[in-house]
Structures are given as structure tokens and as C-alpha cells.
Write a structure and sequence with these properties.
This protein is α/β, with parallel strands linked by helices. The protein is built from 14 helices and 12 strands. Helix 2 packs parallel to helix 11, helix 3 crosses helix 10 and helix 12 packs parallel to helix 14. The radius of gyration is 21 Å and the shape is globular.
Length: 349
């Protein structure tokens, strides 16, 4: 067994901070299903203000946040336009179809934002023969596109298409605060490009549980019923909402440290010719590396790295993923980079 372990699998593996644990212990609670949990209500108000929306809804997971949004915006038989690598399409077990009777239409892209001309093509189809387009879903940052932060310009173009055809836009903003840091904009500016936004407290923000869905007051009023239908109504959930308040008030600004650590990893790995890494391709706390050219599969490389104390993940046969977070220091990143570079060079040679 290695003497030291650095966990770069995801930012979901973070531990709640001491302040979070203290806040959870002393949280003031009530029955949230009746709207009576004061801590949940404070968290929801805080989230709505930060994202510039009228209201917010606390849900257990990001997947539930996305599915509540889709099911609130659409009706059974509708279609939803998504990027072909979207989290909603790729990692949520087909929930929009299984639970909502909604069919996905996927469009490939380079940066995680579907091509507006292709979107418009689908929006112009004969409504008698083809199902209604009920929703356009975007993702920012985009997980399977290397943690890419999609530009405001791209999002606003998509929003203008949606407005022209009177179709709502939902943003899977699981890591929206990472996107805001990377783009140098306010999180409100990103949220303004969508009718509804979901974001996670339990990724880079380090809370143990929870996500929020934000939107108009009318939308959230309808979403409460959908959350209940999906089993997401909770009772004294202020115990976990308390950690979410700490996440939003104390953990956002430090995300820049994770981005800088990810850039360090890219710089070190880019020195290996076979990997062909470009630092400008990585904007946030994720680094995605294609290991095909070094003659090994991604699952094999993940196994070898783990045996040397470096825990990483993979997307497919070719691509590994490394994610920095608040529990990984610069010293950890330097150590991990040194081990990974040595491993890759030993494989190549």
C-alpha cells in the first residue's frame, strides 16, 4: 500500500468543514414540507438572491434538481434538447424519460453548448408530425467537456433562440460558481441566461448534502409539488441546509484555488509530448487527459495510479479525469503530478 493518498476522483468527495458541522449541530429546524424550517427558508432566500431569481427550492441532490426542473417545464410526450454529453442525458439513468415521459434530442458540440442553428432546425419542425420541443437544457460548467466554462455570449445566443420560439431554458449549473470564477462574471449573469437553474452544494462548495433549484416564484411553486412526487420533500432538513448556508457564504471565493491547482496539473502533464495537452482547454477544477497515445486504456491507468496512491476517475476507454477540491492542497497536487508524470513516462518508455 502507498504511504500517501491524494484523491482527485471528484469534488464530491470533500469533507464538510468544521463550521458546517457546528452549524448542523445547532441548526434551528421545523417541518420543511409545511414550509416551516427556518434554516431551509434562509438557505433558499440566500440562493435566490445570489442567482438573481425570485425563489429557490432545496432538494437532496443535483439529479433531483434537474429532474424537478424538467418535469416542471414539460409535459409527457415533449422532447428536450440537450448537448450529447450532458449530465442529464449521460448520468441520470434516463430519469426524464422514465419519470416524465420526456424524450431527449441530443446535439453534439465542441464546448458543451448545442449549435443554435441545429437547435433552430428542430424548433422549426412540423408540430403535427413531430413532438413538441418543451425545453432546452444547457450545462455550465460542462463536466464531460473537461469542466469547460461556457461563455456568456454562447449562452445568450441560445437564450435568444429559445425566446424567439417561446421555449424555456434550464441550466444544469451544478458547478455554476466555478463557471463564474473562470469567466470573470457574476453568477447572476450566468443564471440570467436561463429560466431555471440547478446547482450543487455538495461538490466544490463542500457541503455534505443538497442542491438548489432557482427560478420564478410561479415556477418554484409548481416545482414544490414535483419534488414531493419524486420523494424529495423532507422534514427537519435545516440540519443539512445549515451546511449549505456556510457553503454559499464561505466556500465560493476559495474555488479559485482549485482552478489554480488544476492549471498546475495541466502544466506538468503538458510537458509530456504524447499527451498533447493545451492549458487553454481547461478553465476550472477539472483536467481531462486522453491516454490512448501512450498505449494504455483509461481504466488500466486509473488502476495503476491507484496502486501508487493517486485516485482518479475515467470517462471512457481513452479519457481520465482529475478534479481538484478544497481537501487537496497545492502540496498534494505537486506530489500527485510528480507521481503521474513518472508513471506516464514509465509506460511510454
Amino acid at each position: 500500500m502507498p504511504n500517501r493518498c491524494v484523491d482527485l476522483r471528484s469534488d464530491t468527495v470533500t469533507q464538510p468543514t468544521l463550521k458546517m458541522r457546528e452549524a448542523m449541530m445547532y441548526a434551528e429546524v421545523g417541518d420543511d414540507c409545511a414550509g416551516e424550517d427556518p434554516t431551509v427558508n434562509r438557505l433558499q432566500s440566500l440562493a435566490a438572491r445570489k442567482l438573481g431569481k425570485q425563489a429557490a427550492l432545496f432538494v437532496p441532490t443535483g439529479t433531483m434538481g434537474n429532474n424537478v426542473a424538467v418535469l416542471t417545464h414539460t409535459n409527457a410526450g415533449d422532447t428536450v434538447i440537450l448537448d450529447s454529453e450532458a449530465h442529464i442525458y449521460y448520468y441520470e439513468c434516463g430519469a426524464i424519460s422514465a419519470l416524465g415521459g420526456v424524450m431527449p434530442i441530443t446535439i453534439n458540440s465542441d464546448d458543451g453548448c448545442p449549435d443554435p442553428d441545429q437547435v433552430e432546425f428542430y424548433l422549426q419542425r412540423d408540430p403535427i408530425r413531430f413532438p413538441k420541443i418543451g425545453l432546452i437544457c444547457l450545462e455550465n460548467t460542462h463536466n464531460r467537456r473537461g469542466g469547460r466554462a461556457v461563455s456568456l455570449e454562447r449562452m445568450r445566443i441560445m437564450q435568444s433562440v429559445a425566446v424567439r420560439y417561446d421555449v424555456p431554458v434550464h441550466l444544469d449549473g451544478a458547478r455554476i460558481f466555478n463557471a463564474a470564477h473562470a469567466l470573470g462574471v457574476r453568477v447572476k449573469d450566468i443564471a440570467d441566461c436561463a429560466d431555471s437553474v440547478s446547482f450543487c452544494l455538495s461538490k466544490g462548495l463542500s457541503a455534505p448534502v443538497g442542491s438548489l433549484l432557482v427560478g420564478s416564484s410561479g415556477f418554484i411553486a409548481n416545482a414544490i409539488q414535483v419534488r414531493r412526487r419524486l420523494g424529495g420533500g423532507m422534514r427537519q432538513s435545516g440540519v443539512i441546509a445549515a451546511a449549505g448556508i456556510i457553503a454559499l457564504t464561505e466556500m465560493v471565493d476559495r474555488l479559485v484555488d482549485d482552478h489554480e491547482n488544476a492549471q498546475y496539473l495541466v502544466k506538468e502533464l503538458a510537458a509530456i509530448d504524447n499527451l498533447e495537452l493545451n492549458q487553454t482547454d481547461f478553465h476550472t477544477n477539472m483536467v481531462v487527459v486522453n491516454v490512448q497515445k501512450i498505449g494504455i486504456t483509461a481504466p488500466e491507468f486509473v488502476k495503476i495510479a491507484s496502486e501508487h496512491g493517486i485516485r482518479i476517475s475515467y470517462f471512457d476507454q481513452d479519457r481520465i479525469r482529475l478534479v481538484t477540491n478544497c481537501d487537496v492542497s497545492r502540496e498534494d497536487v505537486e506530489y500527485a503530478a510528480d507521481i503521474l508524470v513518472k508513471l506516464i513516462r514509465s509506460i511510454v518508455n
